[in-house]
Amino acid sequence: ETVLTQSPATLSLSPGERATLSCRASQSVSRYVAWYQHKPGQAPRLLIYDASNRATGIPARFSGSGSGTDFTLTITTLEPEDFAVYYCQQRDTWQGLITFGQGTRLEIK
Amino acid sequence: EVQLVESGGGLVQPGGSLRLSCAASGFTMSNYWMTWVRQAPGQGLEWVANINQDGTRKNFVDSVKGRFTISRDNAKNLLDLQMNSLRGEDTAVYYCAREVLNWVDPWGQGTLVTVSS
Questions:
Q1: Which of A70, A94, B58, B92 fits B40 for a cystine, CB–CB 3.0-4.6 Å?
Q2: Which of A73, A98, A104 to mutate to test the interface with B (most CBs of B within 10 A)?
Q3: What CA dihedral angle connects A50, A52, A58 and A62, to 10 degrees?
Q4: A98 and chain B: CB distance < 8 Å anywhere?
């Protein structure tokens, strides 16, 4: 089973700043990592799939990169609505098992 | 519009059972794996179970194996999660979602399950 480890657990930044969130896999997952944004009381929202592809309707300030075991979600200029919890996720292609990282809380400084 | 709507959550005593349902619309459910994800209070997202397009393959997280079952009715566009022998640690918001290749999208709004005496 692949374990995803996200860092940092909490990131305190101000609107207008740049956010860099990391996700490390315990073994290579090629480029099969997705990123989600989750706000209280709402459904999680897909941001990035296959490491670097923005989902439909996601603003260009969100970008993803990485392959193998190390992945990054970058938000170039933080907007007030970007403060939320972010999760990375991978799916075992053969068995179909899904795992999530433990999440990074992006909070207003 | 692709939409997923969960129902069936509520308060149940430890050891009890509950059946969650998810109604899908706006897409052909029979073309996709479907999945359940939960979030316990103050915790992160945890994948629970999934099922392939024709219901012949099912996977579960270790903590629910033998207690939860997953099923689907493609003719009615319904996904179910039968939860038996419920424990306090099963208390969570349960989300139904569609799997697209290696990612999950969209998600339902969730239904709250509370296991307490």
A1: B92
A2: A98
A3: 140
A4: yes
